[in-house]
């Protein structure tokens, strides 16, 4: 069994009209045994950039610590926050640095850039970027997430509708994956506010 | 790679990306130093040196093409660092399908449009006959002092099953907790307030 599916995860990010949503499941398991049901996989870098780290939980947490460290150094030097595009390049560089002993994480990056243009991107565990206009998915439930998002996505959704679509896509997908589930965690980010929700799913 | 040199990559995506970015920056610095246009052989040597160093562990299979002061060039570079210099080249899992088209239809002295047509046909053969290749065709034409990058020159695989209506959900998601953080501070402007005292 793949090390990427050791803990189980599901992450999705979707673009709406001047906003984006990023969501994940809340399960942490060791293969089929559930260990925690309140695990955090989405991290806030600053108010307008979020990163979701799917894959091996321990590497996700280590990687997050390094990303926060590098972002803080950037803030001190530049006296501003990183743009999402810049942050994506940083993540890619940090992952490729470890080309022959990698972090077993597939990141999803979502943010609002200059003039609040939404940006989403994902990359593989050694930092090959993939930019998308509509949605990106990652984790052990990624196959079912692709299907759900492909069917449910519409361009230019308002924050409320986007929130519902992403929630439904996530909850429908994790029910088809044994390794992810136990509800969801979603952030809906607009230029004015961050709305964070904890979702109830099939708690079994 | 440089304004007059382009490169396509097959193999591990992160490796092709990283190796071409690294060599691009070396070429840029070299141009700043010499003040001359980069040569294709320079790019070729830098790429093969790196790949040979890593003994094939950096899985980048590249096709390198460009026009410089010594004329037009086309090369292929294998992950172990060996190179070929050819009149037509293919790389990647779809290379056999694409090469089959080249071998049967290539002739010397093709015009620009004939060249684009042949290359697109070869890539399409890779898209449809090789299971590891797919989606769209990009074409880049480099001539002396000029280049043309035709992104998504052909789109033979558009998205199927798109619904305009959208879906309505029978049940809304149950939310256990909501937290709202406001990003824009509300600033109240009081007009005609007491002016600050000055001494």
UniProtKB/TrEMBL annotation, chain A:
<keyword id="KW-0963">Cytoplasm</keyword>
<dbReference type="InterPro" id="IPR016050">
    <property type="entry name" value="Proteasome_bsu_CS"/>
</dbReference>
<dbReference type="GO" id="GO:0005634">
    <property type="term" value="C:nucleus"/>
</dbReference>
<dbReference type="GO" id="GO:0005737">
    <property type="term" value="C:cytoplasm"/>
</dbReference>
<dbReference type="InterPro" id="IPR023333">
    <property type="entry name" value="Proteasome_suB-type"/>
</dbReference>
<dbReference type="InterPro" id="IPR029055">
    <property type="entry name" value="Ntn_hydrolases_N"/>
</dbReference>
<comment type="function">
    <text>Non-catalytic component of the proteasome, a multicatalytic proteinase complex which is characterized by its ability to cleave peptides with Arg, Phe, Tyr, Leu, and Glu adjacent to the leaving group at neutral or slightly basic pH. The proteasome has an ATP-dependent proteolytic activity.</text>
</comment>
<comment type="subunit">
    <text>Component of the 20S core complex of the 26S proteasome. The 26S proteasome is composed of a core protease (CP), known as the 20S proteasome, capped at one or both ends by the 19S regulatory particle (RP/PA700). The 20S proteasome core is composed of 28 subunits that are arranged in four stacked rings, resulting in a barrel-shaped structure. The two end rings are each formed by seven alpha subunits, and the two central rings are each formed by seven beta subunits. The catalytic chamber with the active sites is on the inside of the barrel.</text>
</comment>
<keyword id="KW-0647">Proteasome</keyword>
<keyword id="KW-0539">Nucleus</keyword>
<dbReference type="GO" id="GO:0019774">
    <property type="term" value="C:proteasome core complex, beta-subunit complex"/>
</dbReference>
<protein>
    <recommendedName>
        <fullName>Proteasome subunit beta</fullName>
    </recommendedName>
</protein>
<dbReference type="Pfam" id="PF00227">
    <property type="entry name" value="Proteasome"/>
</dbReference>
<comment type="function">
    <text>Component of the proteasome, a multicatalytic proteinase complex which is characterized by its ability to cleave peptides with Arg, Phe, Tyr, Leu, and Glu adjacent to the leaving group at neutral or slightly basic pH. The proteasome has an ATP-dependent proteolytic activity.</text>
</comment>
<dbReference type="GO" id="GO:0043161">
    <property type="term" value="P:proteasome-mediated ubiquitin-dependent protein catabolic process"/>
</dbReference>
<comment type="similarity">
    <text>Belongs to the peptidase T1B family.</text>
</comment>
<comment type="subunit">
    <text>Component of the proteasome complex.</text>
</comment>
<dbReference type="InterPro" id="IPR001353">
    <property type="entry name" value="Proteasome_sua/b"/>
</dbReference>
<dbReference type="InterPro" id="IPR033811">
    <property type="entry name" value="Proteasome_beta_3"/>
</dbReference>
Automatic annotation (TrEMBL), chain B:
<protein>
    <submittedName>
        <fullName>Uncharacterized protein</fullName>
    </submittedName>
</protein>
């Amino acid at each position: 069994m793949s090390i990427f599916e050791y803990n189980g995860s599901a992450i999705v990010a979707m673009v709406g009209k001047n906003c984006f949503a990023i969501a994940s499941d809340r399960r942490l398991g060791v293969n089929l045994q559930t260990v925690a049901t309140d695990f955090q996989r989405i991290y806030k870098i600053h108010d307008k950039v979020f990163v979701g780290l799917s894959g091996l939980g321990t590497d996700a947490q280590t990687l997050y610590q390094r990303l926060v460290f590098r972002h803080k150094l950037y803030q001190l030097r530049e006296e501003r926050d990183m743009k999402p595009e810049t942050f994506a390049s940083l993540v890619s560089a940090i992952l490729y640095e470890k080309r022959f002993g990698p972090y077993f994480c597939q990141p999803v990056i979502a943010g609002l850039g200059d003039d609040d243009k939404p940006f989403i991107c994902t990359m593989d565990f050694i930092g090959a970027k993939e930019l998308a206009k509509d949605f990106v998915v990652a984790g052990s439930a990624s196959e079912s997430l692709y299907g759900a998002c492909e069917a449910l996505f519409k361009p230019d959704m308002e924050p409320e509708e986007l929130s519902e679509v992403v929630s439904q896509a996530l909850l429908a997908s994790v029910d088809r994956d044994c390794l992810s589930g136990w509800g969801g965690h979603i952030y809906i980010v607009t230029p004015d506010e961050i709305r964070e929700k904890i979702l109830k799913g099939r708690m079994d | 790679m440089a304004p007059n040199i382009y490169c396509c990559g097959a193999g591990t995506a992160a490796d092709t990306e990283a190796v071409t970015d690294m060599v691009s920056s070396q070429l840029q610095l070299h141009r700043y130093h010499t003040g001359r246009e980069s040569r294709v052989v320079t790019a070729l040597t830098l790429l093969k040196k790196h790949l040979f160093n890593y003994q094939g562990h950096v899985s980048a299979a590249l096709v390198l093409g460009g026009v410089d002061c010594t004329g037009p060039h086309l090369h292929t570079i294998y992950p172990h660092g060996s190179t070929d210099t050819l009149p037509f080249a293919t790389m990647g899992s779809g290379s056999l399908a694409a090469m089959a088209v080249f071998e049967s239809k290539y002739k010397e002295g093709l015009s620009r449009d004939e060249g684009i047509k042949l290359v697109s046909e070869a890539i399409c053969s890779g898209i449809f006959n090789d299971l590891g290749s797919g989606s769209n065709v990009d074409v880049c034409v480099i001539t002396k002092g000029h280049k043309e990058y035709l992104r998504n020159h052909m789109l033979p695989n558009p998205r199927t099953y798109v619904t305009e209506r959208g879906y309505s959900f029978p049940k809304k998601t149950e939310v256990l907790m909501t937290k709202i953080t406001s990003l824009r501070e509300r600033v109240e402007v009081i007009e005609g307030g007491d002016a600050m005292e000055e001494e």
